[in-house]
Request: fold
Amino acid sequence: MKGFDFEEERIKQEIAKLGAKRVLLQLPEGLKPEAPRLAKVVEKAGALPIVSADPCYGACDLATAEAQSLGADLIVHFGHSKLVKHEAVPTVYVEARATMTVDDAVEASLPLLSRWSKIGLATTVQHLQTLADARELLVRAGKTVVIGDAGRMNYAGQVIGCDYSNVKSVANDVEAFLFIGGGRFHALGIALSTAKPTVIADPYDKRAYSIDDEAQKVLKQRWACIEEAGRAKTFGVLVGLKLGQKRLDDAVKVKETAEKNGKTAILLAVREVVPEVLLEFPTVDAYVNTACPRISLEAPSKFSKPVLTVNEFRVVSGEYSWENLLKKGLFES
Reply:
């Protein structure tokens, strides 16, 4: 696949250094087409490659249990930077940095940013190396550029699906954000976390567009879910089983709060939060998701009953107002 650096030589070196004999390769959906070629790289290094065919949604979704069950002594995880602190199986993170330039996309964004002079800049790990060039183009256009570094991410300016601390740390210092990267997922998170206008500069399609209308649509959907959940008598509290999504303490607190408010609550352990799983519990009126919070936001229409983030549940329980929620963030702790 052109346009990404898969660090094949580094993979070979890590296999040799660890003396690995069986290697589990884990790739997100967009990079899975490279799996057969990368398996050959592992074979040439003297190890048996096994490719995880399951979905991979981020570094929180590390395939440690799968590696252990398969007897793998190394995981090579592609497309994300390290997030999980404790790994039961040695893990190499290959960030798959993009090799394309972003100049055309940033140039295309300038008309959309014309109303604002102070711009926040953010991206995913694939495009971090382009932030300096993007900043220079914006400065030439007369913009003041700010790149946030809250200290929680591996890199300044980096955002991931559930952590927008870098952009939130500079939200009061800018008028709008420019996100470098493809797709709406991360840019939508920026808009929802900061309540600031957000423009996407897509280097793959060499175009730019605003995410603001979609962000407003999501907010209306979330308010509707909160209102519906306010009428619920029984809550299912979802406990994630993925390594980086397991927040049992948070789930227990939600259960206790619900019961203090006269509700019934049950803890449900789940690996994949999908509609088919939740349909098996017809007496549950609403769910609180303590696993990946973006599931609740991205596809509310897929679920037949409200699936709230923990912060949204705090509105239902009276701990937050809607205005407090918007300041705190729909899904960040």
Remarks:
- The chain has three domains: 8-94, 103-210, 215-328.
- Residues 212-229 form the longest helix (18 residues).
- The mean pLDDT is 93.
